[in-house]
Specification:
This protein has 210 residues and is mainly alpha-helical. The protein has 10 helices and 4 strands; from the N terminus they run αααββααβαβαααα. Helix content is 39%, strand content 8%. The model is unreliable at 1-8 and 10-53 (pLDDT under 50).
Length: 210
């Protein structure tokens, strides 16, 4: 199972403005790490050209900035949410957590929100929305990719879908703890995205004692 600390927890380095570590995604994807001890999950590894490794652990404020504002590549975002899902779900869950590669990353508020979501009051509000929807609070893992017509649909349609051939989040994401509260929402907006980022952060801090 792909659980790589340097990839999924790079958010700490991103959040606090440190120079991007010098590594290749090929190197990261090829290196498997088994995470057993929560005490060490907050460590971040910075691999340099000469192969040396140093550790850096962001403080709570840096992590808060990271969860609320950082825009990571899909692999990193997916990894963070997957790790959180694996830790917060109940041992008695009625659904099993699939392997990492069985999930895709979904933007709850779509990038193409202008097609079917309400317009923003000002251009500045629209720019804020465009930025916020790329952050962790708006991202989720789901076990199958949504149909394009569902992915960009209004929130109520995105949840319910359009029949068996075009299922929505309620069917596709059933049993995922990181989406349980999200799917109870009648509306999905900037306020809810910010609230979810805080919830994800609180769980990360509790689980990994960052």
């Amino acid at each position: 199972m792909f659980l790589l600390l340097t990839s999924v927890l790079l958010i700490g380095l991103t959040a606090c403005g440190n120079k991007e570590p010098e590594y290749s995604l090929e190197f990261i994807e090829g290196k498997t790490v088994t995470i057993e001890d929560n005490e060490y999950v907050g460590a971040f590894f910075n691999f340099t050209n000469n192969g040396d490794a140093t550790t850096y652990c962001p403080n709570d404020n840096e992590m808060k900035i990271g969860f609320e504002t950082s825009k990571l590549v899909n692999l990193q975002s997916k990894g963070i949410i997957y790790l959180l899902e694996s830790k917060i779900r109940s041992d008695n869950s009625s659904t099993a957590l699939l392997g990492f590669d069985n999930y895709s990353l979904e933007h709850l508020m779509p990038k193409k929100w202008r097609n079917n979501w309400g317009a923003c009051a000002t251009e500045d509000d629209a720019k804020k929305r465009d930025s916020l929807l790329l952050t962790l609070g708006n991202l989720a893992i789901i076990p199958q990719t949504l149909n394009a017509s569902i992915r960009d649909a209004a929130w109520n349609v995105k949840k319910a879908g359009k029949g068996q051939n075009k299922p929505g989040l309620l069917l596709c994401a059933s049993g995922l703890y990181t989406l349980h509260d999200v799917l109870q929402k009648n509306d999905w907006n900037e306020h809810e995205i910010e609230n979810r980022a805080e919830w994800l952060l609180a769980n990360a801090q509790n689980i990994w004692k960052i």
